[in-house]
Amino acid sequence: MASFCSRCGTALTQKVPDGDDRTRGVCDGCGFIHYDNPRVVVGALATDAQGRVLLCKRAIAPRVGYWTLPAGFLELNETAAEGAARETMEEAGATIVDMRPLTTFDIPRIGQIYMMFRARLAGPEMAAGTESLEVGLYEWADIPWDDLAFAAVRFTLERFAIDREAGVERLHSGTIQIATERDKRASGWPRSILVDEVVVG
Amino acid sequence: MASFCSRCGTALTQKVPDGDDRTRGVCDGCGFIHYDNPRVVVGALATDAQGRVLLCKRAIAPRVGYWTLPAGFLELNETAAEGAARETMEEAGATIVDMRPLTTFDIPRIGQIYMMFRARLAGPEMAAGTESLEVGLYEWADIPWDDLAFAAVRFTLERFAIDREAGVERLHSGTIQIATERDKRASGWPRSILVDEVVVG
Prior knowledge:
CATH class of the largest domain in chain A: Alpha Beta
Shape of chain A: globular
Largest interface: A-B, 49 and 49 residues
Order of helices and strands of chain A: EEEEEEEHEEEHEHE
CATH superfamily of the largest domain in chain A: Nucleoside Triphosphate Pyrophosphohydrolase
Number of domains of chain A: 2
Oligomer: homodimer
CATH architecture of the largest domain in chain A: Alpha-Beta Complex
CATH topology of the largest domain in chain A: Nucleoside Triphosphate Pyrophosphohydrolase
Number of helices of chain A: 3
Helix content of chain A: 10-25%
Largest sheet of chain A: 6 strands, mixed
Structural class of chain A: alpha+beta
């Protein structure tokens, strides 16, 4: 949350602006209102011609040493698919094509929306970027399910598998929440559950 | 773009941080790096039992007096579907249920992603909010196509119509760009075109 005005440097007052219904940082100097909005994380479940999945072992916090699909924050002036391709190049040195929406997950607790794409690897080139310790192509049976970095990665891989079994491509959306003790016993995933799932297609 | 540090109020230096590859506002006082990220617009194409569509006539800039689907910026700590329902209540005084993803549009030129949902009106109640001059339920043949406020609204209505004709529900994603002179002649929509469209389902 901003403490000082990003336009003029004045200390902000936290209050509800006229005509609004929630507290924002308001500048008593220049009048500028500061909005904090959720950020979009974009990434890819990329496969090669044999159906193997590209995974990266994380070299940076959080979850160093755990496996992830290439993903990161969407930047200004790029599309979500372009961002997913950029992250895949940055983290795995790989070029992807044919990006198609696979999952969208809300994580309201941390103000994030994940948009994950199916994609096809354009060639065999790959190399661990500075944010990765290691990258590799995994057969489905060899995916390190117990060492995945994030719930969104696990849920994306699972939905991809469901569609592959059914021979269809659909969009899967839902909300990721912290698991209660009861949920944890039911789901097997240690920290998070997917609720309000909607499947389109 | 931020000129002053939101944490400590120091004037920012625009430079590429260590290990990064694009220019950010960096604070030489406290070291904080300021990221500008795209914002998410959420909204709904809500229909009643007769298939009529809820539209709002805008009372605020931009595009005062033109018609829109209820939509606005996603807030922190809400899901995209919750945001679409909140905007529909704020702008049209209407309660919606059964939100299902319909379109996602990137608009990289202005750093926005639209996420529009299909939804069902829960009852007959509606009332113009402070951002609307008028709200109404429109039969398909009566939609004011020439007086729509935004390209994302037009493209969402069009995709909904395509699915309805085909008797399916799919996700339609794509990128909205400014039309070239040639595109304008081809598309009929005065300012924008949809490119790189992908249909899921």
